[in-house]
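Researcher: Quick sanity check before group meeting.
Model: Go ahead. Protein one:
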Amino acid sequence: MSQTFRHPEILEIARKDGKVTVEKLAEHFGVTLQTIRRDLSDLADAGRLDRVHGGAVLPSGTSNIGYEDRRALNADAKRAIARACAAQIPNGISLFLNIGTTTEAVAQELLHHQKLMVVTNNMNVANILAANPDCDIIVTGGQLRRADGGLVGPLASETIRQFKFDIAVIGCSAVDSEGDLLDFDIQEVSVSQAIIRHSRRTFLVADHTKFTRTAPARIGSIERLDAVFTDAQLPDNLEKAFEGWNTQVIRGL
């Protein structure tokens, strides 16, 4: 069977199951793993799928992909972004880290920082930083989102309003062509807005896929942020907008 016939069926399986794996597709079509990897790469290049470790998932439109798939998606890029971001975070400050797999990668890069006070609404971030004995950790409270360990809702926002952070590191689900930060969960949006209001400086960590996705709820404009850490060249209109807003773009290598 040629790829012309495989591609539509791969997409149909992805729509039905939520994801596809290289091994199962190879068995299904009776072709090699390498052939399926090429098929998935072609579909990803065409924007029909997002590659994850061992397979692919449908691109996110009005619903987010699963946490484990998000963690695996562009993992190397997220680590590079996290290293670049952590390099801009000095010792001895107050810091907020919000929900997201890239902010969790930033937490991993902060394990050797000293005299940090970290506030977070991400249970995974708290667990990662527990390994740093020179880091005080405060968890916001709020409604637990079991899918990803996030804490959302009014209690999380109320805790944030008790602080003024030196730096906040935030993620989002998408960034549109006008430079607006977007998300899927309206409760998370209100928490992110509170974080930005109560931080002296705010950094966005977002790999290149966030600039090709969409989500329904608006957090605010990147105009409010101090820096964007990403892994690729951004669209020209956004690069120019960021320059006009004095929002620095730093690429992880």
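Researcher: Fine. The other one?
Model: Protein two, sequence then structure:
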Amino acid sequence: MSPGPLRGFRDYPPPDAGARSELRRRMRAAARRAGFAELELPSVESFELYQRKSGEGIAAETWSFTDKGDRPVALVPEQTPSLARVFVERGKSEPLPVKWFTVGKSWRYEEPQAGRTREFLQFNLDIVGAAGPEAEVDLLTTAALLMDEVGGQGLYAFRLNDRAIAEGLGRLYGAGDGARFFRAVDRFRKSTPAEFAGELEAAGVASERTGELAELLRGAGPGVPLPEAERYLSGLASRGFDGPATAGVARLNRLFALLEKVGLGDRVVYDPTVVRGLAYYTSTVFEAFARSGDGRAVFGGGRYDHLIELFGGAPTPAAGLAIGDQTLELLLRGAGRWPDGEPALDTYVVVARAELVPEALALVERLRRSGLSADADLLGRSLSRQLREAARRKSRRALILGLREASPGAVVERDLLSGAQRELAPGAL
């Protein structure tokens, strides 16, 4: 018995491979409509790129090895550090802002589950060189356009937060271990009250204050609708936020006002539990989530204003997001909106007699060169079986050569939906 794919990896035979290709085509087209240019990146990078730039979590999940030059390298676990590296190399020649999108495979050695495999494809959008919330607005409106173009209309919304607000909450409640506090907040809705309290205490929050913080987060429910977000944020700030956290509140309120203006107000909520796991995020963070079911995250992103500097570049603001193929597939399949796969064939050329096969192949070649999709039988099947194959391939029409009832040299065109047919002169094809 031949081995199957490794655990956490998938094969994509037809028609799924065609459906995935169609999704990428629509997403690429939407990104270009929004002014993004495509950047292609390598699949293997120096391990140091992730060890220092993405945080310990990503570095621990990389597929890393030593190459034949005794260099530590890794299969790419995410695209953003590579993009930052390229920008630093080309930064002086790139007019700002840079708007790039990437489409590529990534690899992470983590526990496979629904929506998470060890090899996956990501569609990234990044804007480098724009410091204001207009960049986040551009990212989110483009993400909404992408999602709508692939069939996700009405299935998703965005949860937004600002890391400065989350950090301010940590300081307000006495958390000494910021990273552990973030993990506790991030898992708030997946934890029992006892588990959440235990994580907060481990992060340095006094036991008598864990219930207060839990109640504060619980008041946000699955997210605070935009009309109520300013009131909720004001309530947070009134508890004694310091300067950086107060600035985060002002920043987020400005972003919300812009999103309302561009028509995304009905697709945005404020969620204080959204912090995102990557170490390089600096302020705004967001997730797209499924409106129905368990509200699982579909994709996420945020602002990373210091990453370019970490690679030796000048201080440069940046923001981006990454849409993974696995969670997107779950969302679309769950709603019955997964594409059909390969597009239907335009023409299937059929022969009534075997000696006409060379003529059929020549006709197929002419049709393809003219811009039509066309195919013909390669197995020497009977006329009836060729027509059944044409129907199976969902061909729009069959062109039949050599029918006895047809005029000499004529080709019979049969509409495979209605069954209607007519004779065509060779020059009319």
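Researcher: One line on it for the slide.
Model: The first helix runs from residue 16 to 33.
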